[in-house]
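Below sits my pick:
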Amino acid sequence: MSEHVDVLIIGAGLSGIGAAVHLQRDCPDRSYAILESRATSGGTWDLFRYPGIRSDSDMYTLGYAFKPWREAKAIADGPSILKYIRETAAEYGVEKHIRYHHRVLDASWSSAETRWTVRVEHGEAREVVSITCNFLFACTGYYNYARGYVPEFEGVGDYKGRIVYPQFWPEDLDYSGKRVVVIGSGATAVTIVPEMARTAAHVTMLQRSPTYIVARPSRDAIADWLRKRLPAKLAYGMTRWKNVLLGMYFYRLCKRKPQRVKKLIADGVKQMMGKDYDATTEAAFTPRYNPWDQRLCLVPDADLFRALRKKQASIVTDTIERFTADGLTLRSGASLDADIVVMATGLDLLPLGGMSVAVDGRAVKFNETLSYKGMMFSDVPNFAAVSGYTNASWTLKADLIAAYVCRLLNHMKREGMRQCVPRNTDAAMSTEPWIDFSSGYIQRALHMFPRQGSRKPWKLHQNYARDLLSLRFGSVRDEAMVFSK
C-alpha cells in the first residue's frame, strides 16, 4: 500500500522550502512531504560551487517575504544563500518533511480517485516506490541538473589542458599561476572571471557577443540605514518594496527608451574603466540587442572592471575556430594559450525535472498546454509549478505562487471540491511563446515549454505588481478555472 499525503512538493531548493513554509502557515491541517533527488537541500545554491558563486539579484527580493535577510551584503555569495535556505528549513520545521534521494520518475492523475500517483526512485538501489497525493506542487526550477549546455567545438580531443564545467566544479582544481580561458559572457562567466583572476596568471573571458554588464555595490546603503533604525521585518519589507519598484521602473525604461538606457550603461562602463577605456573596451561591452531583451549581468563592487583595470583579466570578442593542444584558435586567426578552459556556455533547460506526467492515462505534452497565471497548465488538474521572473528575482514569483496554491487549497476545502483544472474555452485566442526573451538558453528550449495566451488568465506579464493583485488579492474563481467533486 502506497503512502498518501495531501500535498507533495518536488524539490528542496529555494522554492520548495518556501512552498512548505507557506503550506504550514496557511494550510496547517494538510499533510505534506518534499521529495529531493539529491542528498542535500538548497537546490541551485548547493549544486553550483564554482569560484565566486553569488546571487545576480539583491537578497531583499531573492529572500523570502516571510524571513528577513539579515546579512550585510545585498548581493550575497552562494554559501550565505545556502545557509539562509537551510536556516529557514530548520526554523520552520521543514527539514523533517524532506525525503532525500527520492527522484520522481512520473506522475499520473486519476479523475475517478481525484489523486496523483507519483512513482519515485529511492536510494542507491533505486528502488521504485509510489506515493499518492491530492495536489502536486513542482518546485524543480527549469534547468537540467545533470548537464549544462556545451556547444560542439572542433578539436576538443586535441587539447592537453583541463576543461572545467561550472555546474560540476572540481574540488581539486588549483588555478594559481595558470592561464585560464573562460568561454561565455553571461552571469556565470562574469562571476568566475574576477574570482579566478585573483590568483591565476591571467584570465581571458572569450565571448562570442557582448552582454550588458552593470556594476552595483554589494551592500545596500538604504537598507543598512533602515536596519539601524527600524525593526528587522519592517526594514526588510521597506527595502524589498524599494528594490521591487526600482527594478520595475528600470525594466520599463529599458523597454520604452532603450537608447537612453544603452547610454546610461555605456557611461557606467566608461566610468568603471577610467583611463583604460578605449574603442576595444567599448566594443567588448556593446551588445547587439537592447537592454533586457536578455538578462543584465550584475557585478558587485565592480569586481570584473577592477580585474580588467589591473590587467589580471581581459575580454576577447571572437568565435572559436577549434581547440589545439595548447589552447584555442579563433576565427580571426588569433590564438589563446590556456592551461584551463572553463565552459561557461550556458544552461540546459529541462521542464519539471524531466518527469513525465499523464492525466487519466493520456500523456501530457506540456508544450501543447497553455500556462495559467504562470503556474498551472491547461487541462492538468491539481498541479502547480513554480517559475520565477526573468526580469526580477525568482523568489518574488515563487512566494506569490505558493501563497496562491494555499488559497486554492483552502477554497476547495470550504466548497467541498476535490479537483481544480484550468480550461481554455476560447479556441480563437492567439498564443505566444512561454517567455519573450532572446537569450540562447531560453530560445533553445522554448519548444519544450507551454505557451501563453494573449489575454488573462493565460497571459504572462513578468510584472510583480500585476501578479500581486492577481495572485494575492484576486479571486481564485474565474472563467478558466473549473472546480468539481
Summary: The two ends are 24 Å apart (CA to CA). The chain has a mean pLDDT of 93. The chain has two domains: 3-145+348-484, 156-343. The first helix runs from residue 14 to 26.
